[in-house]
Write a structure and sequence with these properties.
Chain A is mainly alpha-helical. Chain A has 8 helices and no strands. The longest helix of chain A is centred in the first third of the chain and has 38 residues. The radius of gyration of chain A is 26 Å and the shape is extended. The model of chain A has no long low-confidence stretch (mean pLDDT about 90). Chain B is an alpha/beta fold. In chain B, about 55% of the residues lie in helices and about 15% in strands. Chain B has 12 helices and 6 strands. Chain B has a 6-stranded parallel β-sheet with strand order 3-2-1-4-5-6, with helices on both faces. In chain B, strand 1, helix 4 and strand 2 form a beta-alpha-beta unit. In chain B, helix 2 runs antiparallel to helix 12, helix 3 packs across helix 11 and helix 11 runs antiparallel to helix 12. The radius of gyration of chain B is 22 Å and the shape is elongated. Chains A and B meet through helix 2, helix 4, helix 5, helix 6 and helix 7 of A and helix 2, helix 5, helix 6, helix 10 and helix 12 of B.
Amino acid sequence: MDLFKRHLPVFLTAAIGILTILSFFIPHPLVANPAQLLLDWAIVTVASGYVLGAANVLKVNGEDALRQRVDWPYKIVLLLAMIAMMIVGFFLSGGTHFLDAGTKFTWAYDNLYVPMQSTMFALLAFFIASAAFRAFRIRTVDAGLLAIAALIVMIGRVPVGQWITRELPIGLQLPTWASWLLEWPQNAAKRGIAIGAGLGVMATGLRIILGIERNYMREEKS
Amino acid sequence: MNLGDRLEKLDRRWIFLLVGILVLLPLLFPLKLPIAVSGPASRFYEAVNAIPDGSIVVVSGDFDPASGPELMPMLTSAVRHLYTKNCKVIALELWPGGPPLVDGVLHSLGDAMGKKYGVDYVNLGYKSGNEVVMLAFGSSFSRTFPNDYSGTAVNKLPLMQSVDNFDGVKLLINISAGYPGTKEWVQQAQGRYHIRMVSGSTAVQAPELYPYLQSGQIIGLLGGMAGAAEYEKTTGVTGPATKGMDAQSSAHVFIMILILIGNVIYFSRRAAKS
Protein backbone atom coordinates (compact mmCIF):
# COMPACT_ATOMS: atom_id res chain seq x y z
CA MET A 1 0.00 0.00 0.00
CA ASP A 2 2.92 2.32 0.74
CA LEU A 3 3.80 2.15 -2.96
CA PHE A 4 0.46 3.65 -4.07
CA LYS A 5 -0.10 5.97 -1.12
CA ARG A 6 3.36 7.44 -0.83
CA HIS A 7 6.04 6.41 -3.34
CA LEU A 8 4.02 6.63 -6.57
CA PRO A 9 2.61 10.15 -5.90
CA VAL A 10 6.07 11.41 -4.92
CA PHE A 11 7.61 9.82 -8.02
CA LEU A 12 4.92 11.26 -10.31
CA THR A 13 5.27 14.72 -8.77
CA ALA A 14 9.05 14.62 -9.20
CA ALA A 15 8.89 13.29 -12.77
CA ILE A 16 6.25 15.81 -13.93
CA GLY A 17 7.96 18.70 -12.15
CA ILE A 18 11.36 17.91 -13.62
CA LEU A 19 9.91 17.39 -17.11
CA THR A 20 8.07 20.72 -16.97
CA ILE A 21 11.22 22.55 -15.84
CA LEU A 22 13.30 20.85 -18.54
CA SER A 23 10.80 21.88 -21.21
CA PHE A 24 11.68 25.53 -20.46
CA PHE A 25 15.28 24.91 -21.52
CA ILE A 26 15.08 22.01 -24.01
CA PRO A 27 12.76 22.57 -26.99
CA HIS A 28 13.54 19.10 -28.45
CA PRO A 29 10.32 17.13 -29.24
CA LEU A 30 11.42 14.35 -26.85
CA VAL A 31 10.92 16.80 -23.99
CA ALA A 32 8.52 19.35 -25.51
CA ASN A 33 5.83 16.87 -26.66
CA PRO A 34 5.30 15.08 -23.34
CA ALA A 35 5.39 18.46 -21.58
CA GLN A 36 2.72 19.78 -23.97
CA LEU A 37 0.60 16.68 -23.31
CA LEU A 38 0.87 17.31 -19.57
CA LEU A 39 -0.26 20.92 -20.10
CA ASP A 40 -3.30 19.65 -22.03
CA TRP A 41 -4.14 17.30 -19.17
CA ALA A 42 -3.71 20.12 -16.66
CA ILE A 43 -6.19 22.31 -18.60
CA VAL A 44 -8.74 19.45 -18.65
CA THR A 45 -8.22 18.81 -14.93
CA VAL A 46 -8.71 22.49 -14.05
CA ALA A 47 -11.83 22.68 -16.23
CA SER A 48 -13.34 19.63 -14.51
CA GLY A 49 -12.67 21.39 -11.22
CA TYR A 50 -15.37 23.92 -12.19
CA VAL A 51 -17.96 21.11 -12.17
CA LEU A 52 -16.83 20.12 -8.68
CA GLY A 53 -16.94 23.80 -7.69
CA ALA A 54 -20.53 24.18 -8.84
CA ALA A 55 -21.52 20.98 -7.00
CA ASN A 56 -19.76 22.27 -3.88
CA VAL A 57 -21.59 25.62 -4.03
CA LEU A 58 -24.90 23.73 -4.31
CA LYS A 59 -24.07 21.37 -1.44
CA VAL A 60 -22.65 23.90 1.04
CA ASN A 61 -25.24 26.63 0.45
CA GLY A 62 -28.10 24.16 0.03
CA GLU A 63 -27.39 22.64 3.46
CA ASP A 64 -27.14 26.08 5.07
CA ALA A 65 -30.42 27.16 3.48
CA LEU A 66 -32.24 23.96 4.50
CA ARG A 67 -31.05 24.23 8.12
CA GLN A 68 -31.68 27.98 8.18
CA ARG A 69 -28.14 28.83 9.29
CA VAL A 70 -26.73 32.38 9.32
CA ASP A 71 -27.68 34.44 6.23
CA TRP A 72 -29.75 31.58 4.79
CA PRO A 73 -32.03 33.89 2.75
CA TYR A 74 -28.98 35.17 0.83
CA LYS A 75 -27.91 31.60 0.12
CA ILE A 76 -31.32 30.89 -1.39
CA VAL A 77 -30.89 33.95 -3.64
CA LEU A 78 -27.43 32.67 -4.64
CA LEU A 79 -28.75 29.21 -5.48
CA LEU A 80 -31.78 30.52 -7.37
CA ALA A 81 -29.58 32.90 -9.40
CA MET A 82 -27.12 30.12 -10.18
CA ILE A 83 -29.81 27.66 -11.25
CA ALA A 84 -31.64 30.35 -13.26
CA MET A 85 -28.46 31.25 -15.19
CA MET A 86 -27.80 27.56 -15.85
CA ILE A 87 -31.32 27.04 -17.19
CA VAL A 88 -31.07 30.16 -19.36
CA GLY A 89 -27.64 29.12 -20.66
CA PHE A 90 -28.38 25.45 -21.26
CA PHE A 91 -31.97 25.51 -22.52
CA LEU A 92 -33.16 28.99 -23.50
CA SER A 93 -30.25 30.49 -25.45
CA GLY A 94 -29.81 28.44 -28.60
CA GLY A 95 -27.73 25.55 -27.26
CA THR A 96 -24.02 25.91 -28.02
CA HIS A 97 -24.61 29.43 -29.38
CA PHE A 98 -25.61 30.78 -25.97
CA LEU A 99 -22.77 33.35 -26.11
CA ASP A 100 -23.95 34.93 -29.37
CA ALA A 101 -25.31 38.48 -29.34
CA GLY A 102 -29.04 38.72 -28.70
CA THR A 103 -29.47 35.49 -26.70
CA LYS A 104 -31.20 35.46 -23.31
CA PHE A 105 -27.92 34.47 -21.68
CA THR A 106 -26.16 37.52 -23.17
CA TRP A 107 -29.08 39.70 -22.09
CA ALA A 108 -28.74 38.44 -18.50
CA TYR A 109 -24.98 39.02 -18.62
CA ASP A 110 -25.30 42.57 -19.96
CA ASN A 111 -28.21 43.66 -17.79
CA LEU A 112 -27.67 41.78 -14.53
CA TYR A 113 -24.10 40.56 -14.14
CA VAL A 114 -22.29 43.62 -15.52
CA PRO A 115 -24.23 46.27 -13.52
CA MET A 116 -24.07 44.24 -10.30
CA GLN A 117 -20.32 43.67 -10.51
CA SER A 118 -19.66 47.29 -11.48
CA THR A 119 -21.80 48.48 -8.57
CA MET A 120 -19.94 46.33 -6.05
CA PHE A 121 -16.58 47.64 -7.26
CA ALA A 122 -17.79 51.25 -7.40
CA LEU A 123 -18.76 51.07 -3.72
CA LEU A 124 -15.03 51.00 -2.95
CA ALA A 125 -14.78 54.72 -3.73
CA PHE A 126 -17.25 55.52 -0.95
CA PHE A 127 -15.65 53.25 1.61
CA ILE A 128 -12.13 54.46 0.78
CA ALA A 129 -13.25 58.07 1.34
CA SER A 130 -14.82 57.18 4.68
CA ALA A 131 -11.79 55.12 5.75
CA ALA A 132 -9.40 57.94 4.74
CA PHE A 133 -11.24 60.27 7.11
CA ARG A 134 -11.59 57.88 10.06
CA ALA A 135 -8.57 55.58 9.94
CA PHE A 136 -5.64 57.25 8.16
CA ARG A 137 -3.87 58.72 11.21
CA ILE A 138 -0.26 59.91 11.13
CA ARG A 139 0.83 58.35 14.42
CA THR A 140 4.48 57.67 13.53
CA VAL A 141 7.21 59.03 11.23
CA ASP A 142 6.70 56.01 8.94
CA ALA A 143 2.99 56.75 8.68
CA GLY A 144 3.88 60.40 7.93
CA LEU A 145 6.15 59.38 5.06
CA LEU A 146 3.46 57.05 3.76
CA ALA A 147 0.89 59.84 3.92
CA ILE A 148 3.14 62.31 2.06
CA ALA A 149 3.92 59.73 -0.65
CA ALA A 150 0.23 58.79 -0.93
CA LEU A 151 -0.88 62.41 -1.30
CA ILE A 152 1.76 63.15 -3.95
CA VAL A 153 0.89 60.05 -6.00
CA MET A 154 -2.86 60.50 -5.55
CA ILE A 155 -2.83 64.08 -6.77
CA GLY A 156 0.12 63.75 -9.16
CA ARG A 157 -1.51 60.94 -11.15
CA VAL A 158 -4.65 62.95 -11.98
CA PRO A 159 -4.96 66.09 -14.14
CA VAL A 160 -5.55 68.39 -11.17
CA GLY A 161 -1.97 67.71 -10.01
CA GLN A 162 -0.63 68.94 -13.31
CA TRP A 163 -2.97 71.92 -13.27
CA ILE A 164 -2.14 73.24 -9.78
CA THR A 165 1.64 73.04 -10.38
CA ARG A 166 1.59 74.06 -14.05
CA GLU A 167 3.52 77.31 -13.42
CA LEU A 168 6.45 75.50 -11.76
CA PRO A 169 9.47 74.11 -13.64
CA ILE A 170 8.70 70.58 -14.93
CA GLY A 171 11.00 68.98 -12.35
CA LEU A 172 8.92 70.45 -9.53
CA GLN A 173 5.50 69.61 -10.92
CA LEU A 174 3.45 67.00 -9.03
CA PRO A 175 3.26 64.47 -11.92
CA THR A 176 7.09 64.42 -12.01
CA TRP A 177 7.23 63.75 -8.27
CA ALA A 178 4.58 61.03 -8.56
CA SER A 179 6.47 59.35 -11.42
CA TRP A 180 9.72 59.50 -9.46
CA LEU A 181 8.11 57.91 -6.41
CA LEU A 182 6.60 55.14 -8.54
CA GLU A 183 9.69 54.45 -10.61
CA TRP A 184 12.37 54.51 -7.90
CA PRO A 185 11.56 54.12 -4.16
CA GLN A 186 8.37 52.14 -4.79
CA ASN A 187 10.06 50.05 -7.45
CA ALA A 188 13.02 49.22 -5.22
CA ALA A 189 10.72 47.94 -2.49
CA LYS A 190 8.58 45.98 -4.95
CA ARG A 191 11.63 44.42 -6.55
CA GLY A 192 12.97 43.31 -3.17
CA ILE A 193 9.63 41.73 -2.29
CA ALA A 194 9.37 40.08 -5.73
CA ILE A 195 12.88 38.60 -5.51
CA GLY A 196 12.19 37.32 -1.99
CA ALA A 197 8.88 35.80 -3.03
CA GLY A 198 10.49 34.30 -6.15
CA LEU A 199 13.21 32.62 -4.10
CA GLY A 200 10.54 31.30 -1.75
CA VAL A 201 8.54 29.86 -4.65
CA MET A 202 11.66 28.21 -6.07
CA ALA A 203 12.56 26.69 -2.72
CA THR A 204 9.01 25.41 -2.17
CA GLY A 205 8.89 24.01 -5.71
CA LEU A 206 12.17 22.17 -5.19
CA ARG A 207 10.99 20.78 -1.86
CA ILE A 208 7.82 19.44 -3.49
CA ILE A 209 9.70 17.97 -6.47
CA LEU A 210 12.25 16.31 -4.18
CA GLY A 211 9.51 14.89 -1.97
CA ILE A 212 10.48 16.87 1.14
CA GLU A 213 7.23 18.84 1.21
CA ARG A 214 4.23 16.50 1.04
CA ASN A 215 1.37 18.64 2.26
CA TYR A 216 -0.51 17.92 -0.98
CA MET A 217 -0.75 14.30 0.24
CA ARG A 218 -1.87 15.47 3.68
CA GLU A 219 1.38 14.13 5.04
CA GLU A 220 3.85 15.73 7.43
CA LYS A 221 7.30 16.74 6.26
CA SER A 222 9.68 13.79 6.06
CA MET B 1 -19.68 69.60 21.42
CA ASN B 2 -16.96 71.43 19.44
CA LEU B 3 -16.34 71.24 15.69
CA GLY B 4 -13.72 68.46 16.04
CA ASP B 5 -16.12 66.27 18.01
CA ARG B 6 -18.90 66.88 15.54
CA LEU B 7 -16.67 66.04 12.57
CA GLU B 8 -15.37 62.92 14.29
CA LYS B 9 -18.91 61.69 14.90
CA LEU B 10 -20.09 62.70 11.44
CA ASP B 11 -22.45 60.14 9.94
CA ARG B 12 -20.47 58.51 7.17
CA ARG B 13 -23.46 58.76 4.83
CA TRP B 14 -22.64 62.49 4.51
CA ILE B 15 -19.22 61.48 3.20
CA PHE B 16 -20.85 59.01 0.80
CA LEU B 17 -23.20 61.76 -0.42
CA LEU B 18 -20.33 64.20 -0.99
CA VAL B 19 -18.31 61.58 -2.88
CA GLY B 20 -21.34 60.90 -5.07
CA ILE B 21 -21.85 64.60 -5.82
CA LEU B 22 -18.14 65.20 -6.47
CA VAL B 23 -17.99 62.30 -8.91
CA LEU B 24 -21.25 63.16 -10.63
CA LEU B 25 -20.76 66.91 -11.13
CA PRO B 26 -17.57 66.74 -13.26
CA LEU B 27 -19.19 64.03 -15.39
CA LEU B 28 -22.14 66.34 -16.08
CA PHE B 29 -20.09 69.54 -16.33
CA PRO B 30 -16.55 68.60 -17.46
CA LEU B 31 -13.69 70.82 -16.26
CA LYS B 32 -11.49 69.65 -19.16
CA LEU B 33 -8.29 69.74 -17.10
CA PRO B 34 -5.16 69.12 -19.20
CA ILE B 35 -3.83 65.56 -19.19
CA ALA B 36 -0.06 65.02 -18.98
CA VAL B 37 1.22 61.86 -20.67
CA SER B 38 3.51 59.82 -18.41
CA GLY B 39 6.58 57.92 -19.65
CA PRO B 40 5.10 54.40 -19.33
CA ALA B 41 1.93 55.41 -21.23
CA SER B 42 3.98 57.11 -23.92
CA ARG B 43 6.07 53.94 -24.30
CA PHE B 44 2.87 51.85 -24.61
CA TYR B 45 1.74 54.05 -27.49
CA GLU B 46 5.17 53.93 -29.15
CA ALA B 47 5.34 50.13 -28.82
CA VAL B 48 2.00 49.70 -30.61
CA ASN B 49 2.83 52.36 -33.16
CA ALA B 50 6.23 50.83 -33.93
CA ILE B 51 4.95 47.45 -35.11
CA PRO B 52 4.71 47.17 -38.91
CA ASP B 53 1.26 47.69 -40.42
CA GLY B 54 -0.60 44.42 -40.94
CA SER B 55 1.26 42.57 -38.16
CA ILE B 56 -0.40 39.92 -36.02
CA VAL B 57 -0.95 40.98 -32.40
CA VAL B 58 -2.25 38.91 -29.48
CA VAL B 59 -4.56 40.73 -27.05
CA SER B 60 -5.33 39.03 -23.77
CA GLY B 61 -8.24 40.65 -21.94
CA ASP B 62 -7.94 39.32 -18.41
CA PHE B 63 -10.61 41.20 -16.48
CA ASP B 64 -14.29 41.17 -15.69
CA PRO B 65 -17.05 43.80 -15.44
CA ALA B 66 -15.90 45.00 -11.99
CA SER B 67 -12.83 46.65 -13.50
CA GLY B 68 -14.50 47.42 -16.82
CA PRO B 69 -14.68 51.21 -16.31
CA GLU B 70 -10.90 51.32 -15.83
CA LEU B 71 -9.86 48.76 -18.42
CA MET B 72 -12.44 48.93 -21.19
CA PRO B 73 -11.26 52.39 -22.34
CA MET B 74 -7.66 51.20 -22.75
CA LEU B 75 -8.80 47.99 -24.50
CA THR B 76 -10.96 50.05 -26.85
CA SER B 77 -8.12 52.47 -27.62
CA ALA B 78 -5.64 49.64 -28.19
CA VAL B 79 -7.94 47.71 -30.53
CA ARG B 80 -8.78 50.90 -32.45
CA HIS B 81 -5.06 51.72 -32.72
CA LEU B 82 -4.36 48.19 -34.05
CA TYR B 83 -7.25 48.27 -36.53
CA THR B 84 -6.05 51.68 -37.78
CA LYS B 85 -2.70 50.06 -38.54
CA ASN B 86 -4.50 47.13 -40.26
CA CYS B 87 -3.04 44.77 -37.67
CA LYS B 88 -4.61 41.34 -37.23
CA VAL B 89 -5.90 40.82 -33.70
CA ILE B 90 -6.06 37.45 -31.94
CA ALA B 91 -7.86 37.87 -28.61
CA LEU B 92 -8.20 35.49 -25.70
CA GLU B 93 -9.43 35.79 -22.13
CA LEU B 94 -8.33 34.09 -18.92
CA TRP B 95 -11.05 35.48 -16.66
CA PRO B 96 -14.43 33.75 -16.96
CA GLY B 97 -16.47 36.94 -16.58
CA GLY B 98 -14.72 38.97 -19.27
CA PRO B 99 -15.14 37.41 -22.74
CA PRO B 100 -18.37 39.19 -23.74
CA LEU B 101 -16.76 42.56 -22.94
CA VAL B 102 -13.74 41.88 -25.15
CA ASP B 103 -15.95 40.37 -27.85
CA GLY B 104 -18.14 43.48 -27.83
CA VAL B 105 -15.14 45.80 -28.37
CA LEU B 106 -13.70 43.66 -31.18
CA HIS B 107 -17.00 43.45 -33.05
CA SER B 108 -18.26 47.01 -32.53
CA LEU B 109 -14.96 48.57 -33.66
CA GLY B 110 -14.52 45.90 -36.34
CA ASP B 111 -17.94 46.67 -37.83
CA ALA B 112 -17.30 50.43 -37.65
CA MET B 113 -13.87 50.14 -39.30
CA GLY B 114 -14.74 47.58 -41.96
CA LYS B 115 -12.90 44.62 -40.45
CA LYS B 116 -13.91 41.05 -41.15
CA TYR B 117 -14.15 38.40 -38.45
CA GLY B 118 -11.78 35.49 -39.03
CA VAL B 119 -9.63 37.52 -41.42
CA ASP B 120 -8.78 40.68 -39.48
CA TYR B 121 -9.62 39.57 -35.95
CA VAL B 122 -10.48 36.49 -33.97
CA ASN B 123 -11.77 36.02 -30.43
CA LEU B 124 -10.67 32.68 -28.99
CA GLY B 125 -12.70 33.18 -25.82
CA TYR B 126 -12.08 31.90 -22.32
CA LYS B 127 -10.07 28.89 -21.21
CA SER B 128 -9.59 27.86 -17.59
CA GLY B 129 -6.12 26.99 -16.33
CA ASN B 130 -4.39 30.34 -15.80
CA GLU B 131 -0.59 29.94 -16.22
CA VAL B 132 -1.02 26.51 -17.81
CA VAL B 133 -3.09 28.07 -20.61
CA MET B 134 -0.42 30.75 -21.15
CA LEU B 135 2.27 28.09 -21.51
CA ALA B 136 0.18 25.86 -23.76
CA PHE B 137 -0.95 28.84 -25.86
CA GLY B 138 2.67 29.82 -26.45
CA SER B 139 3.47 26.47 -28.00
CA SER B 140 0.27 26.06 -30.04
CA PHE B 141 -2.66 28.46 -30.40
CA SER B 142 -4.91 25.96 -32.21
CA ARG B 143 -4.21 23.08 -29.84
CA THR B 144 -4.99 25.22 -26.79
CA PHE B 145 -8.05 26.82 -28.39
CA PRO B 146 -9.45 24.33 -30.95
CA ASN B 147 -12.61 26.48 -31.23
CA ASP B 148 -13.15 30.22 -31.07
CA TYR B 149 -15.50 32.10 -28.72
CA SER B 150 -18.61 31.23 -30.72
CA GLY B 151 -17.63 27.59 -31.23
CA THR B 152 -16.20 27.77 -34.78
CA ALA B 153 -13.20 25.50 -35.38
CA VAL B 154 -10.15 27.79 -35.51
CA ASN B 155 -8.61 25.90 -38.44
CA LYS B 156 -11.51 27.23 -40.55
CA LEU B 157 -10.54 30.84 -39.79
CA PRO B 158 -8.06 32.29 -42.34
CA LEU B 159 -6.21 34.36 -39.72
CA MET B 160 -5.54 31.31 -37.56
CA GLN B 161 -4.20 29.34 -40.53
CA SER B 162 -1.34 31.80 -40.86
CA VAL B 163 -0.04 31.61 -37.30
CA ASP B 164 0.05 29.01 -34.52
CA ASN B 165 2.53 30.32 -31.97
CA PHE B 166 4.31 33.49 -30.87
CA ASP B 167 6.87 33.20 -33.71
CA GLY B 168 4.52 35.07 -36.04
CA VAL B 169 3.30 37.57 -33.44
CA LYS B 170 4.79 41.06 -33.18
CA LEU B 171 3.30 42.15 -29.87
CA LEU B 172 1.41 40.81 -26.88
CA ILE B 173 -0.99 43.28 -25.28
CA ASN B 174 -2.32 42.28 -21.88
CA ILE B 175 -5.18 44.18 -20.30
CA SER B 176 -5.28 42.89 -16.76
CA ALA B 177 -7.18 43.31 -13.52
CA GLY B 178 -5.10 40.95 -11.37
CA TYR B 179 -4.47 37.21 -11.30
CA PRO B 180 -3.98 35.76 -13.84
CA GLY B 181 -2.67 38.78 -15.66
CA THR B 182 0.42 40.73 -16.65
CA LYS B 183 2.77 39.28 -14.04
CA GLU B 184 1.92 35.74 -15.10
CA TRP B 185 2.16 36.57 -18.82
CA VAL B 186 5.66 37.98 -18.19
CA GLN B 187 6.70 34.93 -16.21
CA GLN B 188 5.17 32.27 -18.48
CA ALA B 189 5.16 33.74 -21.98
CA GLN B 190 7.42 36.80 -22.26
CA GLY B 191 10.30 35.15 -20.40
CA ARG B 192 10.01 31.93 -22.34
CA TYR B 193 9.06 33.03 -25.85
CA HIS B 194 10.73 36.48 -25.74
CA ILE B 195 7.64 38.15 -27.14
CA ARG B 196 7.48 41.96 -26.98
CA MET B 197 4.83 42.84 -24.46
CA VAL B 198 2.89 45.84 -23.17
CA SER B 199 0.39 45.97 -20.36
CA GLY B 200 -2.67 47.93 -19.32
CA SER B 201 -3.68 47.30 -15.75
CA THR B 202 -5.84 48.62 -12.94
CA ALA B 203 -4.35 51.52 -10.97
CA VAL B 204 -4.05 49.41 -7.85
CA GLN B 205 -2.05 46.75 -9.69
CA ALA B 206 0.19 49.04 -11.77
CA PRO B 207 2.88 49.70 -9.11
CA GLU B 208 3.50 45.93 -8.93
CA LEU B 209 4.42 45.94 -12.59
CA TYR B 210 7.06 48.68 -12.48
CA PRO B 211 9.92 46.20 -11.88
CA TYR B 212 8.99 44.45 -15.16
CA LEU B 213 8.76 47.82 -16.89
CA GLN B 214 12.19 48.89 -15.66
CA SER B 215 13.74 45.55 -16.67
CA GLY B 216 12.27 45.89 -20.18
CA GLN B 217 10.16 42.74 -19.91
CA ILE B 218 7.16 44.91 -20.56
CA ILE B 219 7.88 47.89 -22.77
CA GLY B 220 4.88 50.07 -21.97
CA LEU B 221 2.36 50.36 -19.18
CA LEU B 222 -1.04 52.00 -18.78
CA GLY B 223 -2.02 52.35 -15.13
CA GLY B 224 -5.74 52.65 -14.43
CA MET B 225 -8.10 55.19 -15.88
CA ALA B 226 -5.33 57.81 -15.85
CA GLY B 227 -3.19 55.58 -18.09
CA ALA B 228 -6.17 55.00 -20.38
CA ALA B 229 -6.78 58.76 -20.63
CA GLU B 230 -3.11 59.34 -21.46
CA TYR B 231 -3.32 56.70 -24.21
CA GLU B 232 -6.48 58.34 -25.55
CA LYS B 233 -4.59 61.63 -25.67
CA THR B 234 -1.66 60.13 -27.59
CA THR B 235 -3.96 58.39 -30.09
CA GLY B 236 -5.97 61.60 -30.49
CA VAL B 237 -9.34 59.92 -29.91
CA THR B 238 -11.07 61.16 -26.77
CA GLY B 239 -13.06 58.50 -24.98
CA PRO B 240 -14.62 57.59 -21.62
CA ALA B 241 -11.28 57.63 -19.77
CA THR B 242 -10.63 61.29 -20.63
CA LYS B 243 -14.17 62.16 -19.55
CA GLY B 244 -13.70 60.29 -16.27
CA MET B 245 -10.47 62.03 -15.29
CA ASP B 246 -12.18 65.18 -13.98
CA ALA B 247 -14.35 63.02 -11.72
CA GLN B 248 -11.29 61.13 -10.55
CA SER B 249 -9.47 64.40 -9.90
CA SER B 250 -12.25 65.77 -7.71
CA ALA B 251 -12.59 62.45 -5.83
CA HIS B 252 -8.83 62.35 -5.16
CA VAL B 253 -8.78 65.95 -3.93
CA PHE B 254 -11.73 65.20 -1.65
CA ILE B 255 -10.02 62.13 -0.18
CA MET B 256 -6.86 64.21 0.36
CA ILE B 257 -8.91 66.84 2.21
CA LEU B 258 -10.53 64.12 4.33
CA ILE B 259 -7.11 62.73 5.28
CA LEU B 260 -5.92 66.22 6.25
CA ILE B 261 -9.06 67.04 8.28
CA GLY B 262 -8.92 63.67 10.03
CA ASN B 263 -5.32 64.29 11.06
CA VAL B 264 -5.91 67.89 12.14
CA ILE B 265 -8.61 66.58 14.51
CA TYR B 266 -6.29 63.79 15.70
CA PHE B 267 -3.36 66.14 16.42
CA SER B 268 -5.50 68.81 18.07
CA ARG B 269 -6.98 66.17 20.43
CA ARG B 270 -3.55 64.77 21.20
CA ALA B 271 -2.27 68.25 22.01
CA ALA B 272 -5.30 68.92 24.24
CA LYS B 273 -4.75 65.65 26.14
CA SER B 274 -1.07 66.28 26.73
